[in-house]
Design goal:
Length: 153
């Protein structure tokens, strides 16, 4: 990815955001989340005291939930600067949709939103948007002519 982005004019922040997502996924996978406000089903709606493990899960998850839209917005700017309008639009749209659904998910987990029973589903849709964008981004960068030129240097 570094080589492909270097060929486009470099975007150090995009690499930092993507690395943060990777670290966040590993960390969030190592630490189990706490049940919260009726999720999963059967958990009391009352606020529960977070555990250390649950706090670590949330800390690492924050890297994912801020890293994905951060990378999307950063790369949208890079793609726009390089005339890749479709990728600039797709990256920006994915980041904005991710942020909007993340806020909606957070509100519903807190029992403030209209769909608290669907907070887990909303969270998965949010992540699906981000991971789909990352997958297509990787394919795009691998297939683009600038990648092979950068790797050959």
């Amino acid at each position: 990815m570094r080589s492909a982005l270097l060929a486009r004019g470099r975007s150090q922040w995009a690499l930092i955001w993507i690395a943060a997502v990777g670290i966040g996924l590993i960390g969030a996978g190592l630490f189990v989340t706490d049940p919260v406000n009726g999720y999963p089903v059967g958990t009391p709606l009352l606020p529960m005291q977070p555990t250390v493990v649950g706090r670590l899960h949330r800390l690492f998850s924050a890297l994912v939930f801020f890293g994905l839209p951060g990378a999307g917005l950063t790369l949208a700017r890079l793609f726009a600067r390089n005339g890749e309008r479709t990728w600039a639009s797709y990256s920006k749209f994915s980041a904005i949709a991710f942020i909007a659904l993340f806020v909606l998910t957070s509100l519903n987990f807190a029992q403030i939103g209209m769909f608290p029973n669907y907070a887990g589903l909303l969270q998965r849709i949010t992540l699906l948007i981000g991971f789909t964008w990352m997958t297509f981004l990787s394919i795009h960068l691998l297939k683009s002519p600038s990648t092979s030129q950068a790797i050959g240097r």
